[in-house]
Design goal:
The chain has helices at residues 29-48, 51-67, 69-80, 84-108, 141-154, 169-181, 195-204, 217-226, 252-264, 284-296, 316-331, 368-371, 387-394, 410-419, 452-458; strands spanning 9-14, 19-25, 113-116, 120-128, 131-135, 158-162, 188-190, 210-214, 233-237, 242-246, 274-280, 335-338, 342-343, 354-355, 358-361, 378-384, 399-400, 402-406, 424-427, 442-443, 446-447, 460-468. The chain has 469 residues and is an alpha/beta fold. The termini are far apart. Bound molecules: NADPH dihydro-nicotinamide-adenine-dinucleotide phosphate.
Length: 469
């Protein structure tokens, strides 16, 4: 661990209490140059380390995450405000799963060959790119950090990685586990700090040849402009405003439960959350009433309490942004059916940034509340009359990340899934993830895909070799 060149540290606030509880190094260009030097020194050795050895180190790292799951889940809950039980079952479990999956993917990855009759044969070499940059957001701090780092390392790259300065703690704890697992020095270089101080410089550093970024669409657009003309490989996983389509023939009770989960998991701070809920008119009132009743049962409280289902939003500024959208929704003619306010938790969390799970109806599809990503515990309900209308509403934003469709009509499920403009469509489920599948969005939700082979292809440079017989 190295202190930042500037000597500056940023306050790190626990969202559930509103209190500063640690300091984050504010890295700058000088720290980045040191990290790049250290990555350059490690690059050749790691690229030439056998696949088996790389996989062995990564599997050891995954085992260490499992062994430290309780401590990591607690750290994530303190740093992010999410419920500790959710952190353990989702964030930490999936962090280890990412690393283990890509450790094995590295040993199974193969490349193509293309025969040209009896004239020639082509084969594709897939070499590591060299130094790659991985930048991740605050909503799944360790999970999304490992989602990028694991395939990059498995493919033989060395990495400069930046977690969000809002949630840096598990990246720090992870760095200690990397050392324990035997990852050689310089292979993974973690730089803490803000977007402007260190995120931007990582994206434009000439020695960093590829950037894998997950975050907001505005930041993604900024990175695209900042790197224009530099010929870097870019993978951009951006924002979402995901539709949930509930048809009258769905399994009613299960759909209510799952649509609540899709809207409010992680306080609605998942890029995949279904925040625009369209319900077939025939069941609109029945579904709305059951949905609101279910939302009212969500247990809000101290994230460190194992029984908490709904924790704090990540920061004061984010809470204020979410509350301002609830205000806007009402100005736009919406009616709040439940929630709508900051929630007061007693005891140690009395100053925490809690927002009530909020359900709004009565808005049209074009209003800002239904067009802009709120990224908090707020969803809207709207009726629709037929399949075509549902698809039109679903596709009516600039985003195209994910959607879920709830129906027992097989033909409709396939047809609607094909028509929806999104990178992922779930039928009668939500957030069910197979790590082999392509992951990413269309329209303003991103460029490129990660996951499985897509990630392995992104983090390697293909070279065609053509041999004439
Ligand atoms: P941001 O875009 O604000 O930040 C993402 C990361 O980029 C952070 O580490 C941030 O640093 C860094 N960053 C900020 N500015 C720059 C810059 N100019 N150059 C390089 N890096 C920069 O997103 P949030 O952290 O607020 O995350 C929420 C967003 O992420 C939502 O829009 C959500 O939909 C999206 N998201 C998308 C996912 C997907 O897979 N498509 C998954 C999860 C979230 P810092 O925070 O330190 O300022």
């Amino acid at each position: 661990m190295v202190a930042p060149d500037s000597g500056n540290y940023i306050d790190n606030v626990e969202p559930a209490t509103g209190q500063v509880y640690s300091l984050v190094p504010e890295s700058n260009d000088v720290d980045l140059d040191s990290a790049v030097k250290s990555a350059e020194a490690a690059k050749e050795h790691w690229a030439n380390t056998s696949l088996e050895k790389r996989a062995e180190i990564l599997c050891r790292l995954a085992d260490l995450i499992d062994a430290n799951a309780d401590e990591l889940a607690k750290a994530e809950a303190i740093d992010n405000g999410k419920a500790v039980s959710f952190a353990k079952d989702v964030d930490i479990y999936r962090s280890a799963a990412n690393i283990r999956f890509f450790a094995h993917a590295g040993t199974q990855f193969s490349s193509e060959s293309h025969a040209m009759g009896d004239l020639a044969i082509n084969y594709t070499l897939r070499d590591p790119i060299g130094i790659v940059g991985c930048i991740s957001p605050w909503n799944f701090p360790l999970y999304l950090f490992t989602w990028k780092i694991a395939p990059a390392l498995a493919c033989g790259n060395v990495v400069i990685a930046k977690p969000s300065e809002v949630t840096p703690m598990t990246a720090y704890l992870f760095s200690k586990l990397c050392i324990e697992a035997g990852l050689p020095a310089g292979v993974l270089n973690i730089l803490h700090g803000t977007g402007p101080s260190i995120g931007g410089p990582i994206t434009t550093h000439p020695n960093i040849k590829a950037i894998s970024f997950t975050g907001g669409s505005a930041t993604g657009a900024h990175i695209t402009k900042a790197t224009a003309g530099m010929f870097k490989k870019l993978s951009l996983e951006l924002g979402g405003k995901n539709p949930t389509l509930v048809f009258a023939d769905c399994d009613f009770d299960e759909t209510v439960t799952e649509v609540v989960r899709a809207a409010f998991s992680n306080q609605g701070q998942i890029c995949l959350c279904g925040s625009r809920i369209y319900i077939e008119r025939a069941i609109y009132e029945k579904f709305r009433n059951a949905f609101v009743d279910k939302v009212k049962t969500l247990r809000i409280g101290d994230p460190l309490d194992e029984s908490t289902q709904h924790g704090a939003t990540v920061s004061q500024s984010h809470m204020e942004k979410v509350l301002s959208y609830i205000e806007l929704a009402q100005q736009e003619g919406g009616t709040v059916l439940t929630g709508g306010k900051r929630h007061q938790v007693t005891g140690r969390c009395k100053d925490g940034f809690f927002v009530e799970p909020t359900v709004i109806e009565g808005l049209d599809n074009q209003c800002r509340t239904n067009q802009e990503e709120i990224f908090g515990p707020v969803c809207t309900l709207m009726p629709f009359d037929n399949d075509d209308a549902a698809v039109k509403l679903a596709n009516g934003t600039q985003y195209g990340l994910a959607a879920s469709v709830w129906t027992n009509d097989l033909k409709r499920a396939h047809r609607v899934a094909k028509q929806i403009e999104a990178g992922i469509v779930w039928i009668n489920c939500w957030l069910l993830r197979d790590l082999r599948t392509p992951f990413g969005g269309v329209k303003s939700s991103g460029v490129g895909r990660e996951g499985g082979l897509e990630a392995m292809r992104f983090f390697t440079e293909p070279k065609n070799v053509c041999i004439k017989y």
